[in-house]
Design brief:
By secondary structure, the chain is mainly alpha-helical. The chain has one helix and no strands. It is rod-shaped, with a radius of gyration of 67 Å. It starts with a helix and ends with a helix.
Length: 163
């Protein structure tokens, strides 16, 4: 019995050894599967890390572009405001130029009228001076005739007194 009991124990140990070996093979296969899965995950992590770096780089570039565009947008706003200001100034200057032209035309018209009046008055003055000169000449002639007549009268009175 002892032999049989040893045989049974040996068979039980063989069975356990086979089960352990089977379990070992199963676990080894599982470990290999997990190692392959782990390797695939590591490769995926590496790939995703690389992709993440590329995306971060792209984000930085886009942020710079956006910053530039915002800066340019601010510049455009400033330029637009300056343009509007310059347009208003230009309009004011054009209005002022039109007003100045109008004033200049009115002044030129008044100057022409004044020149015409001045010419008219110069002719009147010249005519009056000629008339004055004629009157002065007549006056001098009349004064001379008066003196001559007075002298003739005095001479006549002296002759009459002498008679």
């Amino acid at each position: 019995m002892a032999l049989e009991s040893i045989k049974q124990k040996m068979q039980a140990l063989n069975l356990k050894a086979e089960e352990a070996e089977s379990k070992n093979e199963e676990l080894t296969a599982k470990v290999k599967g997990l190692e392959q899965e782990n390797l695939a995950k590591e490769q995926e992590i590496t790939s995703l890390s690389h992709r993440n770096q590329l995306l971060e780089s792209e984000v930085e570039k886009l942020e710079e572009v956006m910053k530039d565009l915002k800066g340019k947008g601010g510049d455009v706003t400033i330029i637009s405001a300056q343009n509007e200001s310059l347009q208003r100034k230009l309009q004011l200057m054009e209005d002022e130029a039109e007003e100045t032209d109008k004033t200049m035309r009115e002044t030129n018209d008044k100057l022409r009228q004044t020149d015409i009046k001045a010419g008219h008055y110069e002719r009147k003055v010249q005519a009056l001076e000629e008339s004055r000169d004629q009157w002065e000449t007549k006056y001098e002639e009349m004064a001379k005739k008066y003196k001559d007549a007075q002298k003739a009268l005095e001479d006549f009175q002296h002759e009459m007194e002498g008679l």
